[in-house]
């Protein structure tokens, strides 16, 4: 049985987790957590890790050349580089409002990339 050691990031406590994994890759037990969120985080991190991506995207015709963006939810960890490339190649036309979807369904994840700040037209 394998054991992965993680630091939980679900809350500010940062509990040291030990996640026991059987030969089939299934989580058997999570220990070290002080709340239920730690167990959920440890299980998810070992079986299907996901992350939120934050970056900037180019703005055409805007008062600023870039707008800060983020994924509306978590995406699979293995799709982060493809997501970043899609954001890098993407362009959005000004004006941009806070919350505007600038890349729908990024990389087929079902998660949109949204603006986290507005940019006026230039």
TrEMBL record:
Q: What is this protein called?
A: DUF1667 domain-containing protein
Recorded hits in Gene3D superfamilies, A to Z, give: CPE0013-like
């Amino acid at each position: 049985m394998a054991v992965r050691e993680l630091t939980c990031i679900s809350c500010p406590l940062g509990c040291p987790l030990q996640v026991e994994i059987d030969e089939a890759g299934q989580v058997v037990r999570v220990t070290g957590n002080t709340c239920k969120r730690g167990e959920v985080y440890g299980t998810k991190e070992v079986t299907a890790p996901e992350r939120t991506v934050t970056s900037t995207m180019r703005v055409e015709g805007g008062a600023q050349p870039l707008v800060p963006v983020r994924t509306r939810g978590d995406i699979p960890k293995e799709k982060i580089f493809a997501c970043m490339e899609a954001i890098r190649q993407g362009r959005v036309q000004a004006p941009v409002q806070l919350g505007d979807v600038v890349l729908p369904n990024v990389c087929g994840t079902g998660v949109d990339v949204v603006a986290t700040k507005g940019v006026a037209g230039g």
